[in-house]
Write the structure tokens for this entry.
Amino acid sequence: MPQDFAEWLEGVLRQRGMSQKALAEMIDVTPAAVNGWVNGRSVPRYEKITLIAAALEVAVEDAVDLRMPGTSSSELEWMFREAPKDGGREGGNAAAFAFAANLEVLAREATQNSLDERLEDGPVVSRFVLHELTGQPLQDFLRALRWDEIEKHLQAAADPSQKVGRVLLDGLHELERTQRLVLLRVDDYNATGLTGPEYEDGRFSRVIRRTLDSGKADTQGGSYGLGKAALWAASRFGLVLVNSTLSQPQNGRWERRMAGRLELPWHAIGAQEFAGPAWFGAVDHERENAARSWWGDPETARSLHLERDDSAPGTSFLVIGAYDGSGDAEQLEEMHELLVRGIARNFWASMVGGERSEPLLRASVASWRNGRTVIAEQRIDPHHHEPARSRAVKAFLDGRTVPEITGRDDVLETAVTLKLPREKGASPADRVAPGTHDAVLLVTPAGDTEAKPDRISYMRATRMVVKSKRIGDLPLGHRSFQAVLLAGAATGKESPDTEAAERLLRTAEPPDHNDWVGTEDLTATYVRGAQQRILDFKRDAEQRVREVLRGQEAQQNEDEGPDILKELLRLDPPKAARTQGFPVVHAVEGWLDEQSAWHVRVTVKYPEREDPWVLAPVVRFAGRDGGGTPVRWAELVPEQNCELTKHGNLLFRKGRRGTFSGVTDVSDHPVPAAMSRIEVDVPRAKEAAQ
């Protein structure tokens, strides 16, 4: 932040690209007077400061408080990095290929980053919002994004012979074909925010300016600088915008620090070659061909769909053209489900709180379409997704674990020892044996309905699940269980051995953070034998679980017999499985053709039964008057698991899901299609199945 008015005025003049002479002419003073203000020889009176502020198009409050000014939307531009003169080319950001480009990975990496930036006074709040744009809302957003400035670069980079180029080409075709764009906003609150200077080292520059530079240490999860790349990899266009509320002011400001980054491969437009990356922001007149972050206003944030709900520090990332690279989810509802699953699977333990301790994380997912709710915000409850394991962690946090299991809700706690290897480069005084670390092993009976019992989950630090695996060679007739291994900082202890264990396990995690194994970082940091210590630790944890189960088996009441027989001989009736009772529309994709006919592709889910389902699909127009008017089909085409009957209905004969497509009859439209939205229903037809 500027220390005095002279420093502030000099900085704003550079930012605006304005000379001292030009300012002097605008406020009717001599150039010598302006030079005196810039060099600190004198300070203007308040009346002159108001004139200076007006000439520089900044708020008077900014000039008085020495804050760097905000930026209007008209000052924003996309700045593309020029290709190097040596002819070198890059086919994209290699960091984006370190893991699978799917939404579950995005959920894991983004949530981990939020946990790493959590402030200490409570849980970090992580919120995922899917937002589908069509029609006028889509056009308004593209205008605010300056789409016309980047579209030609996207087209030039969409080389079908390159992997990144094929993704770009597919994204452009999908946008043109469907006139639909999915945004994914990832918000966190009670987090640090993108603090730090524009170009020098700091959180902002590591995320927006740099590649493979995480700056993380201690108990934080990331160490490769790859997590942020998952955000860009989840965009069909490699395009992400940010809006950050800072926990520590930068240049006198803390709210709405905004920027954008576009990750493209090398491309050329005419004779001009570009390296690939581009930045969205205000032109930096102090650096050639550079755009800096800007302090935005509420209207700009709203137009870019980046407005934040409250003033708590943290960052909002907007993934533009969000998609699931695995192809498992295309519709909004399916993408919503994948995000929920990814967060629950990896962070259930982080979301568990105790009687005297809050959870580390609160997470939710919501889905919108053109600003309207499609799926209401869904708070992720760890006890719903992982009941037994969540019960185990809660009992540990509450100090209610037991030395042996006697009831179905008991949680047994025992220790597993990790032998700590010596780090390389230690001084002679530090070359004594570094000692051991006692990790915490929790074992509890699994619920009757759990799909994957008899597993152990490894975690450290923020309690993200590093790995969950089934334990083999278990005692015959053992009671089904779930086990949790808390190591390093996850034990809640503060001691030198805890810190040493956390460092060791952190270096043993590969880029995917999905195991503790021998990595290059482990080999470079520790003396020979460190990998074997890790393998022994995991093996001992599994063996300790087997010992616990054998102990429980020996203590069973002989009159009652083993648990496996008790379960087989239970006399209470089994619980009836909840089933879907009728066909429903699972997903709808629609677009308008040149004749203004609606084209739809509909996926139907239906219960299994002996007789096939015969359905009479109905399409209704919901015009601006709010009515729901049925419209004739011009064409109805079965695609998967269905066929057309002689009466023009659809017969779904096998499986639990089928797909059909249809085109509306333009002559039957009650209003122009562009002024409407449509609804599709699948009631049962009156004709009998053949």
